[in-house]
């Protein structure tokens, strides 16, 4: 699962409406998988990303080179776009868990695929 996907996921357990984003990683196995660089895609995705959640997640995974704020010249800043590309498109979580900070529900990740299905009583 790429970090771009994680940045769009939240807990959907019944009545879990606060502090349910971003999901916290536990026992995460991180792998870098090369992807084609597309600066236009990155500039279009940038406004859709929750930057605070992304930086928090990166720090949690031990990735410390993420700026606290998006640079003002982000769309033209090649170094920033390449670092963003590496972070959201090439950083994959292969195994582990995502845990809701509110209800503590666990979403398992196996072979890079998060299981977001809920039991009937959780819907």
Give structural attributes.
123 residues; N-terminal domain of TfIIb; 28% helix; Trm112-like
Produce a short descriptive summary.
The chain is α+β, with helices and mostly antiparallel strands and 123 residues long. It has helices at 3-6, 39-45, 51-60, 78-90, and strands at residues 24-32, 91-99, 106-110, 113-114.
What does this structure look like?
GO terms for molecular function: protein heterodimerization activity. Interacts with TRM9. It comes from Absidia repens. One of its GO terms (biological process) is rRNA (guanine-N7)-methylation. It is a single chain. This protein has four helices and four strands. With 123 residues, it is an alpha+beta fold. The chain has one domain: N-terminal domain of TfIIb (Single Sheet). It has a four-stranded antiparallel sheet. The two termini are 24 Å apart.
Count of DSSP H/I helices: 4
As a percent range, the share of strand residues is 15-25%
> What is the level-2 CATH architecture name?
Single Sheet
Q: What is the residue-averaged pLDDT?
A: 96
CATH names the topology as N-terminal domain of TfIIb
CATH class: Mainly Beta
Number of domains: 1
Q: Which stretches are poorly predicted, pLDDT < 50 over at least 5 residues?
A: none
Euclidean distance between termini CA atoms: 24 Å
Helical content, roughly?
25-40%
Spatial strand arrangement across the major sheet? 1-2-3-4
Family: Belongs to the TRM112 family.
InterPro entries: Trm112, Trm112-like
Subunit structure: Interacts with TRM9.
GO molecular function: protein heterodimerization activity
